[in-house]
Amino acid sequence: MSVLVEVRDLIKTFGEGEAETRVLRGLDLTLETGELSALLGPSGSGKSTLLTILGTLLKPSSGLHTMLGVDLAAARDAELTEFRNRHIGFVFQFHHLLPDFTALENVMFPTAVMAGRETASARTRAAELLERVGLADRMHFLAPKLSGGQKQRVAIARALMNRPELVLADEPTGNLDRDSAEQVMALIGEINSEEETTFLISTHDENIAAHCRRRILVRDGRVEG
Amino acid sequence: MRYGLKIAMRYLGASKAQTSLLIAGVAVGVFVFIFMSALIGGLAVFLLQRTVGDIAHVTVEAPSRDAVSLMGEQGDVLLVEQRATNQRTLLRTADAFLPLIEALPGVAATSQQIVGNGFVVRGQARAPVGITGVEPGKVSAIADIDGALISGTTELGNSGVVIGSGLADDLGIGVGQVVRLQSDRDVERTLVVAGIFEIGLDALDSRAAFVTLATARTLFDLPQGVSRIEIKLVDLNAADREARRISAETGLKATPWTEGNAQLLDGLRAQASSGNLIKAFALITIVIGVASALLLSTYRRRPEIGIMRAMGASRLFVIGVFVTQGTLIGLLGGLIGAGLGFLALSPFPVPELAPPGGLPVDVRQGAYDLAIVLTTLGAILASILPARAAARVDPVSVIGQ
Ligand SMILES: Nc1ncnc2c1ncn2[C@@H]1O[C@H](COP(=O)(O)OP(=O)(O)O)[C@@H](O)[C@H]1O
Ligand SMILES: [Mg+2]
């Protein structure tokens, strides 16, 4: 296995002076290609903060952050935007689909936004992904017409659209009932073993963590153990 | 940018009522713009037509000769000069210049005239008149006497005279009756009233008499030459330029109508600038309306914008989506407003033919293309602020952790 993401001595503070909160305090973490990891820790321990930094949406206050050998801590916004588009997929607790678009259009978005149009090959790939997540018959439904579990599966298909090396999922089942949550986790497990996509999934649900092969515990702004 | 266009259209289509209202608002602004253009332009045509329709556009006369000092260059000269007031400047060589003037492309009609003062005498009654001798068949060359005729004809024959209705009423005469015309040179001719006109201008209706050039020659004792040549132009707005040109080509004094009508021109200019002010306000209203609507939409769509950014949409892409929305709104509102403006203005007769008391709007002067272009540019401008606000949305702040 090869190193996909490396984080060294990562520090993230919010606010200044009196109001300063140190969320990450010298965190070290290495993710290897093909890993399926659960990111655990009490609420407020900094899981979401870490995920947004790993997803290049947030800059760390200091520390090293490389992925695929690229120094992301030093990159500019435009470079990060493109890097994110190509190499990172997101699944959020709230699905965050575009409400005026169909399931298929939502899944195609990451490819179309780079190509400048919805290509035929993107359409084919998106349709295959929707089939893969069991939504072949919901392809042309507008996002708000789908159930919570269906929306989250569309979000997973969208995250996989550009064949990213890393998928970051922040409490992806936090808003789902037990059955839907189990379905979503089973799906993630299958895709991980089929495609070697690396998943990092934050949760505080032991049942969810049980689906993952590695457990990463965040406490006091550091990775424990 | 095709994809940005798709998203922009989807966003506009998502809230149809709001988008329709916005476009309707823009269209109303464009309608006001077009209506003002047509009204101000139409009023100008109407007023010019009314004022200049019955007068010469350019009047050609002999250059007035000033006395020349015969003293040498040395020494100071104190000179009091009085312009000759009774001197009749005469165009002795009108025949030579006329073909030259008539050949100019901007000239529509010419009329050689001998003018002077006199009295119409009928029994005991005497009325002062301005006598104008014109070439046969050219009574209507400058003022449309034919169109204003209330009885008789403008055929002057050998001894005919055409007078205005005011004069005819004063003297109690009608067509076919005989009057005596007495010039200020004390020459008298007996003439038959050939026609009576009523043009609506007191100066003509009560104090003008048209006779033939031959009659005028006898009355004013002028065996040759004419007093002036009056000219109608194809385009009355070109009077200044044409006058300069005629003057340059003939060496004669050519006076455009604008010289005696500075007030009218000032009035028209003032009217045009107040019209422009109203049009500018219409455009500003459009810009503010589009900007505020898009700003609201930006705010409402913050979560989506954040997610698009997280999925790899660049700032420029987001800006493109919102500027495209502004452009579409401006273009659509502009086209609809211009279409409605044209439809609303079309039933109005053009100001040249407008009945008295009618609204002199000119459908040809709606400035439709300008309205559409300015509105679209305005809407693009209006969308820049919301677009930049959208591009600055921080994905982290809307993802909700
Ligand atoms: N933008 C922010 N400004 C200030 N404090 C923040 C901000 N984002 C997160 N925090 C704080 O950082 C801490 C960690 O938050 P988070 O990463 O969301 O934890 P978790 O996802 O593990 O619950 C919390 O105390 C939270 O209040
Ligand atoms: Mg969290």
From TrEMBL, chain A:
One Gene Ontology cellular component annotation held by this UniProt entry: membrane protein complex
SUPFAM superfamilies, sorted: P-loop containing nucleoside triphosphate hydrolases
Domain annotation ABC transporter: ranges: 5-225
Recorded coiled-coil stretches: none
Signal sequence, start to end: none
Keywords: ATP-binding, Cell inner membrane, Cell membrane, Membrane, Nucleotide-binding, Translocase, Transport
InterPro entries according to UniProt: AAA+_ATPase, ABC_transporter-like_ATP-bd, ABC_transporter-like_CS, ABC_transpr_LolD-like, MacB-like_ATP-bd, P-loop_NTPase
GO molecular function: ATP binding; ATP hydrolysis activity; transmembrane transporter activity
Family recorded in the similarity comment: Belongs to the ABC transporter superfamily. Macrolide exporter (TC 3.A.1.122) family.
Annotated protein name in UniProt: ABC transporter ATP-binding protein
UniProtKB/TrEMBL annotation, chain B:
Annotated ABC3 transporter permease C-terminal domain residues: 280-395
GO cellular component: plasma membrane protein complex
InterPro entries according to UniProt: ABC3_permease_C, Lipoprotein-release_system, MacB_PCD
One Pfam assignment: MacB_PCD
Keywords recorded for this protein, A-Z: Cell membrane, Membrane, Transmembrane, Transmembrane helix
The MacB-like periplasmic core domain, residue ranges: 19-240
Family indicated by similarity: Belongs to the ABC-4 integral membrane protein family. LolC/E subfamily.
Protein name, UniProt field: ABC transporter permease
Biological source species: Arsenicitalea aurantiaca
Higher taxonomy: Bacteria, Pseudomonadati, Pseudomonadota, Alphaproteobacteria, Hyphomicrobiales
